[in-house]
Write a structure and sequence with these properties.
The complex is a heterodimer of chains A (65) and B (160). Chain A has 65 residues and is mainly α. Chain A has one domain. Chain A is 54% helix and 0% strand. The longest helix of chain A has 13 residues. Chain A is globular, with a radius of gyration of 12 Å. The chains are: A mainly alpha (65), B alpha+beta (160). At the A-B interface, helix 3 of A face helix 2 and helix 6 of B.
């Protein structure tokens, strides 16, 4: 998922990550799979990649603050 | 993680494998594949890069790092400013408490280390166009390949 997706979410902290993962998975997989992946986010085996940090604008930072 | 009958019946396993297939095909998708590659696939010609690993370690004056035994391959970064131009404080009087070491490491080593680490946190830095996003896409592909293989093996074990 991109950092932009996380920055644009309405949640914060772990909820923001869960929401961004839900959003980034979108229609790529079924709701069963999507819910399963979100439920596993806090497991040690989970990998979370955040890409495109440079796409975060000053405005995005202010929204999150 | 073991596979339960419920996970098979709910369609979770098939859904996961479909998702993994999507991730595996991701770097080669037509919409992201550069035209100049023609019929060649990015995953076929991909060569894993070397990385310059930077790490801040506590400067105990005895050992730089528990997992760093190849002292010949590492070098200390010099202080950016001399004592005379820095503020007079503890750091200036007693030296840096932390030392930044850097060394070249193949992505294979980095990936292996991150795979077995309990807390895996790494930032990949580089100028635009150096392939950071592609590196991530290929890492995701590798993880998906390994997970798909694991599920396939466990599914075979269940049906046997």
């Amino acid at each position: 998922m991109s950092c932009k997706q996380m920055a644009n979410g309405s949640e914060a902290g772990e909820a923001a990550i869960a929401q961004a993962v839900q959003d980034s998975l979108g229609s790529q997989c079924s709701p069963v799979v999507r819910n399963y992946i979100v439920s596993q986010l806090q497991q040690e085996r989970a990998w979370i990649f955040l890409d495109a940090l440079d796409e975060i604008t000053e405005e995005d930072r202010q929204v999150r603050a | 993680m073991s596979i339960s009958a419920l996970e098979v019946a709910s369609g979770l396993l098939k859904g996961l494998r479909d998702y993994y297939k999507l991730l595996i095909a991701g770097p080669d998708a037509v919409e992201v594949r550069p035209v100049y590659l023609g019929a060649r696939l990015p995953s076929d010609i991909y060569i894993e890069p070397d990385t310059l690993r930077r790490q801040r370690v506590f400067n105990s004056r005895e050992h730089s790092s528990p997992d760093d035994t190849s002292s010949a391959r590492r070098r200390s970064r010099p202080n950016e400013a001399s004592v005379e131009v820095r503020d007079i404080e503890e750091t200036a009087l007693y030296g840096e408490r932390f030392q930044e070491i850097e060394r070249w490491e193949s992505w294979t080593q980095v990936y292996a280390r991150l795979s077995r680490a309990g807390l895996r946190t790494a930032g990949i830095l580089g100028p635009p166009g150096q392939g950071k996003t592609h590196l991530v896409a290929m890492a995701v592909r590798q993880i998906a390949l390994e997970e798909d293989e694991r599920i396939r093996n466990q599914s075979c074990g269940m049906s046997a």
